[in-house]
Automatic annotation (TrEMBL):
Residues 113-330 form the Aminoacyl-transfer RNA synthetases class-II family profile domain. GO terms for molecular function: ATP binding; catalytic activity, acting on a protein; magnesium ion binding; phenylalanine-tRNA ligase activity; transferase activity; tRNA binding. This is Phenylalanine--tRNA ligase alpha subunit. Its cofactor is Mg(2+). The gene is pheS. It catalyses: tRNA(Phe) + L-phenylalanine + ATP = L-phenylalanyl-tRNA(Phe) + AMP + diphosphate + H(+). Its main location: cytoplasm. Tetramer of two alpha and two beta subunits. Binds 2 magnesium ions per tetramer. It comes from Acetitomaculum ruminis DSM 5522.
Length: 339
């Protein structure tokens, strides 16, 4: 029995010496000192030992257990110290190195221009309103004096979900919803995302943004519209900016006009930016059609108003001299970091 215990101790020492990790060392502890370990098996065999020899054998087993436990603890402590030293080396911080600068984001060029436009109109007393992007055909077309047979309602131009519901093609439905509330007077702009069935190219996208504005009150005239747009243009493009209104047709306004601004690069003299014309088209506008007022419950004999709409991407491209609309959506960090 004494020889067997000596063999167990030597085998335990050998396995302890070969253990380079704490997990492996724990396996050795279980193999020799656990409930099913080598020493436990020896104790279970004590029933076959004579009564007078049992105390001596028991003492030898306990001594062997104590020696193995001591060796295990010494090795465990050594492994823990080595592991700590390795971790400290790996996690050492050189406080003399320059600190790494966190990469901070910034506003997208579209967002920069949107906030600038909102600030301009807020300073003139306008409220910023929004509405659903999934809209009823009634609000998107019919309430804006666009009949059922109008080309804009063609499925080639509009994303219809069913015959009554679609993805809005403009933010004008927000104007109708505000008019229906009947709280007059109204001074509002409605920025938001809109959808049209366009092929993606340098100047078109199936999803883009519009900013539409409207004023409804007593005694509103075309002169108020012109003055508002002139002030807006000067604030956005510079104090020397001039505007020019050209007759046009929109179903929801009468009379209607397209608005050009004098080229803010050449001052209207003609350059590459304005294609030599001295003017740049930026938006459409007009006096709110009396029928649109009537359909929203407003008496056109007592109230009048004007409305206008501008593409956010259009003025972003102009302001920053970007020649391809797709650059705004490709998320190329090299491009976006310029703004």
């Amino acid at each position: 029995m004494k020889e067997k215990l000596e063999q167990i101790k030597e085998e335990a020492f050998k396995q302890i010496a070969e253990s380079k990790e704490l997990s492996k060392l724990n396996d050795v502890r279980v193999n020799f000192l656990g409930k099913k370990g080598e020493l436990t098996a020896v104790l279970k065999g004590m029933k076959n030992v004579s009564a007078e020899d049992r105390p001596k054998i028991g003492q030898l087993v306990n001594e062997t257990r104590s020696i193995i436990e001591t060796k295990l603890e010494e090795t465990k402590k050594a492994l823990e110290e080595a592991e700590l030293e390795l971790r400290l080396k790996r996690e050492t911080i050189d406080v003399t190195l320059p600190a790494s600068k966190p990469i901070t984001g910034h506003a997208h060029p579209n967002q920069v221009v949107l906030e600038e436009v909102e600030d301009i109109f807020r300073s003139m007393g306008y409220e910023v309103c929004d509405g659903p992007e999934i809209e009823y055909d009634y609000y998107n077309f019919e309430a804006l004096n666009i009949p059922a047979n109008h080309p804009a309602k063609d499925e080639q131009d509009t994303f219809y979900i069913n015959k009554d519901i679609l993805l809005r093609t403009q933010t004008s439905p927000v104007q109708v919803r505000v008019m229906e509330k009947g709280k007059l007077p109204i001074k509002m702009i409605a920025p938001g995302r809109v959808f049209r069935s366009d092929e993606v190219d340098a100047t078109h996208s199936p999803s883009f943004h519009q900013i539409e504005g409207m004023v409804i009150d007593k005694g509103i005239t075309f002169a108020d519209l012109k003055g508002t747009l002139l002030e807006f243009s000067k604030r956005l493009f510079g104090p020397e900016t001039k505007i020019k209104l050209r007759p046009h047709h929109f179903p929801f306004t009468e009379p209607s006009a397209e608005v050009d601004v004098s080229c803010f690069k050449c001052g209207g003299k003609g350059c590459r930016f304005c294609k030599g014309e001295g003017w740049i088209e930026i938006l459409g506008c007009g006096m709110v059609h009396p029928r649109v007022l009537e359909m929203s419950g407003i008496d056109p004999e007592e109230y009048s108003g004007f409305a206008f709409g501008v593409g956010l991407e259009r003025i972003t491209l102009l302001k920053y001299e970007i020649d391809d609309m797709r650059l705004l959506y490709e998320n190329d960090i090299r491009f976006l970091n310029q703004f």
